[in-house]
Each structure stands twice: as structure tokens, then as C-alpha cells.
Sequence to fold (53 residues):
Amino acid sequence: MRWFIEHAFVLVPAQSVVAQHLASFQEFPPRQAPGSFSVEQAMEKLRNPPSSN
Fold:
């Protein structure tokens, strides 16, 4: 907890950088839809053996 208090001065400039980055999405929106998968689905695919096609 002490580290957070001693380094609180970093948060204000970081908020500015993040706000600029998020604003860039308005000018240049993502060209691809985000993936619709979860870590659990990926792990399930890794657990199951591949099909013999």
C-alpha cells in the first residue's frame, strides 16, 4: 500500500496518456470485431484431442 501512496504522482500523467489513446479510437475505430472467446473455451480446446479428419 505504501508504494501506491509514494508513486501517486504517476497516476495523473498516466490518465492523460490513456485518455489520448482512447480518443484515438474515435478517429481510427478498430477494423475487426473483437474475439468472442474466453480462456475457458481455449483451455477446453487444448484439453480435447484433435479429431481424426
